[in-house]
């Protein structure tokens, strides 16, 4: 369609044309509105004539308002904004309006602003006046609070002030200060900021409530963790960590990161953390735990993925066995100070499905320190993440002290502050080297069970001698020997070689463990009165503080029990 052809017929176009015609005639000739349009052309057609045609007789002949003759001082004295006119290099007062005088008091004319307008100095505006005078460009500062509690936005504009003699000669450069009261806006903004702070505090409280309130401290490890929420918005993140004692001296350690932020990410994180604790109680290998988590993550939310590392420390082995689902590598500093990076194997993040995870291991003997962390510690927008991991390795090489001290030093070395843009979770574990009297509280003894059923009396004698040398009470000595006898008898009857009895003591407990080559896990059951067997595990479960079993690499199993040691005053 040709809009040019039809536009002249549109009602709005005709009205605007008529108005422009009247206005042009009025301006040019000084005649009243409507003059210059022939009478026989007014009001014709379907479109009404311009508004000037309907002016009343009272309005005819009224001259336009002369704004040029309106006194500026009268106008400025009536506006509610604060106005001050300054002139010269020292910004001498030429004029302040009534609103300015009401806000700050009368100001003497001719005095320098530094003396006469101390409020501008308190607000830091005097240097701004110099800038405006030099650059001849206006400047604005927003929402400055004055002594009385009101807030103003100040605009300083360069002007030329007439000379004092009024001769009409060249004026003096000056500055017009115009201040608008924005107290309502400032208070609303402060209320909004306070509300956002409260929301963020609530979000952080929610996030922290989903994390362990107190870390479990295993016998053989010292552990600390730090969580630093990222950003300033009230959005919880999906970073989490946990420490789970598995029994038998073993400890599971986990750290993960659900992608994204917000309540949904936190909800997924909470479900995954709960699931990890449940799966850990099954005492499965790390890769099997991740396999279960992967399926659960898909069920929870197929669009939400998470990275995770699940690791198990066994003090008898002196290693950290782990599996990774797309997470960053564990960093270990051994007793000699050498840094190891546990990079392989690793699989895709949780929630992707279709992947068989695998376990790897890294040494963690006495004197070693390991760090597990989320990407917020090492990822920066302007550098490759491998550079961040390398920087973490350098920081760990020089970080000594308790686990909490190491945590804090790593956080500082990474430049993580309160306004960091990503959540950060760090888990530091140390396997301390025990020496002197402390070393006497951590002892190990093991016996290979050879020769079939005749190994049972040798096992009892071995256990009795070891427990006596560790100076346990007679009651604990007898309970330990009984537990060792029952576990060995169960293994000799139902297991296959190789078989081993291991005794271990810490400063908190006595652990008795028997391993063999059969992967069938025993169950506690009620033996019937006529049964000649089936009571061994029930006896162990009754006399021990805790007991359990797990499959071992290579197809065997381990059955263990533990006795809590009395606390020494």
TrEMBL record:
Family annotation (SMART domains): PP2C_SIG
Annotated SUPFAM superfamilies: ATPase domain of HSP90 chaperone/DNA topoisomerase II/histidine kinase (SSF55874), PP2C-like (SSF81606), PYP-like sensor domain (PAS domain) (SSF55785)
Molecular function terms, GO-annotated: phosphatase activity
Top-level taxonomic group: Bacteria
Residue ranges of every copy of the PPM-type phosphatase domain listed in the record: 218-431
Keywords associated with the record: Hydrolase
Renumbered residue ranges of the record's region Disordered: 1-66
Keyword Hydrolase: yes
Name of the featured protein: PAS sensor protein
The organism of origin for this protein: Streptomyces antnestii
